TrEMBL record, chain A:
Gene3D superfamilies: Periplasmic binding protein-like II. Keywords: Signal. SUPFAM superfamilies: Periplasmic binding protein-like II. This is Sugar ABC transporter substrate-binding protein. PANTHER family: ARABINOSE-BINDING PROTEIN-RELATED, POLYGALACTURONAN_RHAMNOGALACTURONAN-BINDING PROTEIN YTCQ. The keyword Signal applies. It comes from Cellulomonas aerilata. PROSITE patterns: PROKAR_LIPOPROTEIN. Residues 1-25 form the signal peptide.
Automatic annotation (TrEMBL), chain C:
This is Sugar ABC transporter permease. Its main location: membrane. GO terms for biological process: transmembrane transport. One of its GO terms (cellular component) is plasma membrane. PROSITE patterns: ABC_TM1. It holds the Pfam family BPD_transp_1. InterPro entries: MetI-like (IPR000515), MetI-like_sf (IPR035906), UgpAE/MalFG_permease (IPR050809). Keywords: Cell membrane, Membrane, Transmembrane, Transmembrane helix, Transport. It is a multi-pass membrane protein. Belongs to the binding-protein-dependent transport system permease family. It is found in: Cell membrane. The chain crosses the membrane at residues 21-45, 86-109, 121-143, 163-196, 217-238, 271-291. Residues 83-290 form the ABC transmembrane type-1 domain.
Length: 446, 322, 300
């Protein structure tokens, strides 16, 4: 028995020794705590090394530019799968274990989730951050304040204002007017179907897209008055959008391929599907997924609910957040600001990853001003710059969006495969969301 | 004859070699081993009809098992445009070398690094894991000591624990000593093979005769030395089997690395390819790289199978006995 | 420890080769304790926690909550649905897979088949394909637009709600038949030829020999493969996770393990831990019951 005990402790010691020797990649900060939460945003006064986790393709080169110019603030990049593909889960684990990176990529919709887990450093104490407010498109800044006047929980990086991509050639050949309202869209859907195509594809897993449609319609799924949360997936606008698509799905006027699959690519590439009401980064998705249709696409503002309205939804977009446990919030914020506001960084990000900057100046960069060949030479980013200004600042994300997406998406899948409707899916997801919040002891209004 | 129960069988009764999933040959209980060759020469009574039926079944299923792999091989030779437009089961323009170059060069040549990592995790992990499991299984089979059955039962219980249940707490435990995102955080947990203990115990019980150990003792050989000189040789088929299964298990595992690792340079190839697969939306050429990479990641395993195949017929372990 | 006249001396000294036993057992025991027992204990601990906080963004505090999470887990209908789904999967897929594996093993062991080495390897090769990659590959093969077998996949939607479970079963079968076949085959090789030499001389057919002699003798191997298959079925994760990306019908709670993963990413770690513990218990009960039932039938 004694031998066993000793053997176990020896093994433990050996383990510790082994790992201690090899933990070069580790960041020393153990024990998430109030290192930075309270307010101070002071320079360290010595060279620091920051870790930054992201899934932006080609980010290494952008960071190398920064490292070259800032020998005292070196940044190490670590890449992972996209947020819901595993990186968020890792962030949560790391926060719980107290070894999160200094900086991380977080999409707007996940910020409240990290805030609720007490994972974000409030950069409201960093003067340079507060001063940068005016550089950003208004709604993006609202998104990172999470409803608190003096707080800033992340630096906006990119945005996904939505507009309508459409096959200009097919609409013209078939004499179908490009819809400017959703009513016209439904009429056009019938005509397109009669011509043998589908006006668009409704993919049940892209709940963010659906949320963008609700956002455009002026609805919001969550409210937070500082005391408690209100969950309202079935608000008037949300139900209006759901019924609209329920109708199109039921009448077989839209296709329902799962998004981002080869079949989905194929549906666009073969001309089966004619439009996509999508975010600015969708421009690249079409260009690469449907190479045979080059030159035949164009972009128009999203259809409106009321004739003459001018509102746009948003789909996606990320921020750069500073995690609790960092010892260098000042340097981290400085890097995040450079990454997301400087011309050189933004130009590099546009080229490497097709990011659409969240700053007003960034949207005017030369890289975004030219006509795009794939879209028949149309300067499509002008349409999106306009849309970005029309995105409502009032849309609020909830604190458990991963769960909401899963539950809504599960319900939408059923609706598409013939069991129930989108509206019913929203109703049931509202119920599960309330229980999910209660399970986390987050106060919810009934 | 008993079933391989969760440890309730005593050594004496569980000597049925048939319970041993043994790639390398039978856990012989002392009888001369039949070779397939010996049998194929016999039996003119087998009719032409049953031969034809049997061969047809085998050929049909060979197609079933190999077509997806053939498809992968073909896909890896195609340019991206051809992937969806040409016959999926036959070659179009040969683009294999370009694909290999592009795939291995993407992201600063990180794929070869992943393959190397996988070889280290799986090769090193399986080797060490097999050794430890073999030693433990041998001791459980050949020595009597209090708590022996308890140890065995607890270890067998370990087979039943879901991977998801282990991975998360493991991450938090490794965090306590600041050791996540290291080679060891993936390597060390992978070398534990409860199944290996089970297998080697049953095998050692039947394949390593007491007399041989006693003889070694009389010769003055220490217990540990006897294990390495006598027992390992006799247990070799089981050890090869454990090694192979552990190698495959580690090679295929991506859940633990997904949770443990942040540094791309430490990824095994499965996690790396999964990573690429989630980025296909942004970087569509990755779809082809995932397929080419998948092919590259299967090749080493097939090589291992082929290399170890000679042990399937070798008859090591049984021949040495009588 | 000295061998002075302690009361327990005789019992202790009966264990021979204590040092050797320690050397053999300790390394594995240490690692097993660290990487199996400790995490399990930790998961059980986590499953007894509940979260408390003040206000909408108050920092979360974990406190002891007894069996709260278990009560919640047992009331969760997605949990029961997912268990029901894998049970249905297992009841169909495991017997089919094992029957195929047994037939192949018997054929390989019979004089009817030539080219054994080739078939053995060909059938075993899919086992080399990691689950994630196998699922991606089959995803292509099932696709209505891109599959090489379009005539089939266009007329039958293999990824629909009704069929996707069986599409997945096919992937699992494809990967594991060869593995199970080898286990059974090697135990067939272990049967001494004399055992059925007499039957052969009496002119019994291969089918007859297989049915009345070989199968009963390799029953332990079949049961072993069955138990591992049951465990594997309850722990399905990689296949449904990949299938989610191309099938509408695979939900985030499709299998118990996927449910654990989705719950953990909320993040609701205590509830996820409770699900895991329940799943491990269910696995244990099922394999144990199976063992008991088959033992009674097959071995007495």
């Amino acid at each position: 028995m004694r031998t066993t005990t000793r053997a176990v402790s020896v093994a433990l010691l050996a383990l510790t020794a082994l790992t201690a020797c090899s933990s070069g990649a580790d960041d020393g900060a153990a024990g998430a705590g109030d290192t930075a939460s309270g307010g101070a945003c002071e320079p360290a006064g010595e060279p620091v090394t920051l870790t930054y986790t992201t899934w932006i393709p080609g980010i290494e080169d952008v960071v190398a530019t920064w490292n070259e110019a800032n020998p005292d603030i070196q940044v190490e990049v670590q890449t992972g799968p996209n947020g819901n593909g595993g990186t968020y889960q890792n962030f949560f684990n790391q926060l719980e274990a107290g070894n999160a990176p200094d900086l991380g990529q977080i999409e707007y919709d996940a910020l409240p989730n990290f805030r609720v887990q007490d994972g974000l450093v409030d950069l409201g104490a960093c003067e340079e951050v507060v001063a940068a407010k005016d550089q950003f498109v208004d709604w993006t800044w609202q998104q990172v304040q999470l409803g608190e006047e003096d707080s800033v929980y992340a630096i906006p990086q990119d945005a996904g204002p939505m507009a309508l991509f459409y096959r200009a050639d097919l609409f013209e050949q078939n004499n179908i007017p490009v819809p400017t309202t959703w009513e016209e869209f439904a009429t056009a859907a019938e005509q397109v179907r009669a011509a043998g195509g589908y006006i668009t594809n409704f993919s049940q897993a892209d709940i963010n897209q659906f949320a963008g449609l609700v956002w455009q319609a002026g609805g919001s799924w969550f409210e937070n008055d500082g005391e408690q949360w209100t969950v309202d997936l079935t608000n008037e606008e949300s139900v209006k959008v759901a019924s609209f698509w329920d109708d199109l799905i039921e009448r077989d006027l839209v296709s329902t391929y799962p998004g981002w699959t080869t079949e989905w690519d194929n549906a666009y590439n073969s001309g089966e599907v004619w439009t996509w009401n999508s975010a600015v980064w969708g421009a690249n998705s079409i260009a690469t997924g449907a190479p045979d249709t080059a030159g035949r696409w164009a972009v128009a503002p999203s259809p409106q609910w009321e004739d003459g309205d001018a509102s746009a939804g948003n789909w996606g977009g990320s921020t750069t957040a500073v995690f609790q446990g960092t010892e260098h919030p000042y340097e981290a914020a400085k890097f995040a600001l450079w990454l997301n506001t400087s011309e050189e960084a933004l130009t590099a990000l546009i080229e490497a990853a097709n990011l659409y900057p969240a700053t007003t100046d960034g949207a005017q960069l030369p890289a975004l001003a030219e006509g795009v060949e794939f879209y028949g030479g149309q300067p499509i980013y002008d349409v999106f710059a306009e849309a970005s200004e029309q995105v409502s600042p009032d849309f609020v994300w909830g604190p458990t969006m991963t769960q909401v997406y899963n539950d809504v998406s599960d319900g939408f899948s059923q609706a598409i495969t013939g069991g129930g409707t989108l509206t019913e899916a929203l109703e049931s997801a509202e119920g599960t969301t309330v229980s999910a919040l209660e399970a986390q002891a987050i106060p919810v209004a009934k | 004859m008993t079933a391989p129960t969760t440890g309730t069988s005593t050594t004496g009764r569980s000597t049925n070699g048939g319970a041993v999933p043994d790639l390398a040959g039978p856990g012989s209980s002392g009888t001369a081993r039949r070779t397939p060759d010996r049998r194929s020469g016999s039996g003119p009574q087998e009719s032409r009809v049953s031969r034809t039926v049997a061969m047809t079944v085998m050929v049909v299923f060979t197609v079933y098992f190999l077509v997806p792999i053939w498809w992968l091989l073909v896909a890896a030779t195609k340019a991206r445009g051809d992937l969806t437009t040409t016959n999926a089961l036959w070659f179009s323009d040969m683009n294999l070398l370009e694909n290999l170059a592009a795939t291995t060069g993407y992201g600063g040549g990180v794929l070869p690094r992943w393959l190397l990592n996988s070889v280290l995790y799986a090769g090193g992990g399986a080797l060490l894991g097999t050794l430890l499991a073999g030693m433990c299984g041998y001791a459980l089979a050949k020595y009597r000591f209090p708590g022996r059955e308890l140890v065995f039962n607890v270890v067998l219980g370990g087979v039943l624990v879901p991977a998801t249940a282990l991975a998360l707490p493991l991450f938090l435990l490794f965090s306590q000593i600041n050791a996540t995102n290291t080679f060891w955080s993936v390597f060390l947990p992978s070398i534990v093979s409860p199944f290996g203990v089970y297998l080697t115990r049953i095998f050692a019980a039947s394949a390593v005769p007491e007399e041989l150990l006693e003889a070694a003792r009389l010769d003055g050989s220490g217990e540990v030395r006897t294990f390495f000189t006598v027992a390992v040789r006799l247990m070799f088929p089981a050890l090869v089997t454990v090694f192979l299964f552990q190698f495959v298990a580690i090679w295929n595992n991506f859940f633990l690395p997904l949770i443990m690792l942040r540094d791309e340079a430490l990824f095994p190839v499965t996690l790396g390819l999964y990573n690429w697969n989630t980025q296909v939306n942004q970087v569509p050429e990755l779809r082809l790289y995932v397929l080419t990479g998948a092919l590259l990641s299967i090749v080493p395993l097939i090589v291992v199978f082929l290399l170890l195949q000679r042990f399937w017929r070798g008859g090591l372990g049984s021949g040495a006995l009588k | 420890m000295s061998s002075a006249a302690l009361p327990g001396r005789r019992r202790v000294s009966r264990v021979a080769h204590k040092r050797a036993i320690a050397v053999f057992v300790a390394p594995f025991a240490a690692l097993f304790t660290l990487f199996y027992l400790l995490p399990i204990a930790y998961a059980v601990f986590q499953s007894t926690r509940v979260v408390e906080r003040e206000g909408t963004f108050g920092p979360p505090r974990e406190v002891f909550g007894g069996l709260t999470q278990y009560a919640q887990a047992l009331q969760s209908s997605p949990f029961w649905d997912s268990i029901g789904r894998v049970l249905l999967f297992g009841i169909v897929q495991v017997p089919v897979m094992l029957a195929l594996a047994l037939v192949f093993a018997l054929l390989l062991d019979s004089p009817l088949v030539r080219g054994r080495r080739f078939f053995r390897l060909a059938f075993f090769v899919p086992y080399a394909v990691p689950g994630v990659i196998a699922a991606i590959m089959w995803g292509f093969l099932y696709s209505p637009n891109l599959s090489p077998f379009r005539p089939l996949t266009q007329s039958v939607d293999l990824l629909s709600a009704e069929l996707v479970l069986w599409a997945m079963a096919n992937v699992v079968t494809w990967v594991f038949v060869g593995y199970n076949m080898l286990i059974i085959y090697s135990s067939l090789l272990a049967i001494p030829a004399e055992v059925y030499e007499a039957a052969r001389l009496d002119g019994a057919s291969q089918v007859r020999i297989a049915w009345s002699i070989k199968i009963p003798l390799v029953m332990p191997a079949i049961i072993l493969t069955a138990i591992f298959s049951i465990i594997g079925t309850l722990q399905l994760l990689a296949e449904p996770q990949v299938f989610r990306t191309f099938s509408s019908a695979v939900t985030s709670t499709f299998t118990p393990n996927l449910l654990v993963y989705s719950t953990a990413s909320v993040p609701n770690v205590p509830l996820a831990a409770a699900f895991s513990v329940l799943l491990a218990l269910a696995t244990f009960v099922l394999s144990f019951t199976f063992l008991k039932v088959t033992q009674r039938k097959a071995f007495q």
